[in-house]
Design goal:
Elements lengths: L12 H4 L6 H14 L8 H8 L3 H13 L3 E7 L6 E8 L1
Antiparallel strand pairs: 1-2
Helix pairs in contact: 2-4, 3-4
Length: 93
């Protein structure tokens, strides 16, 4: 969630040892896991980029990579009768 301020994130051992993920992907996935336990995870690319000091484009590529590798599901919710995105829900598998 945009307003969520992470004081720390926990990297589970299975994520730490996963050679299919980059360090940035591991960080994002851990943030998604943490938020998904209590609420919908709706982190924007802008939020991820500010947390990890990377560009919004890089954030988008990392999210897509996590989806393509089968770690997360992405659901786009549009505003009613519009193609404008209301929110993007990230859910870990």
């Amino acid at each position: 969630m945009e307003e969520e301020n992470f004081k720390y994130i926990i990297l589970p051992e299975y994520i730490t040892k996963d050679k299919n993920l980059t360090d940035k992907e591991k960080s994002i996935y851990s943030m998604i896991l943490a938020l998904s336990k209590t609420q919908e995870c709706i982190m924007s690319n802008a939020y991820i980029s500010s947390m990890l000091n990377i560009s919004k484009v890089h954030s988008s590529r990392l999210i897509s990579s996590l989806r393509d590798k089968g770690y997360i599901k992405i659901k786009i919710v549009y505003k009613e009768n519009s193609k404008e995105i209301l929110k993007r829900i990230l859910t870990p598998y």
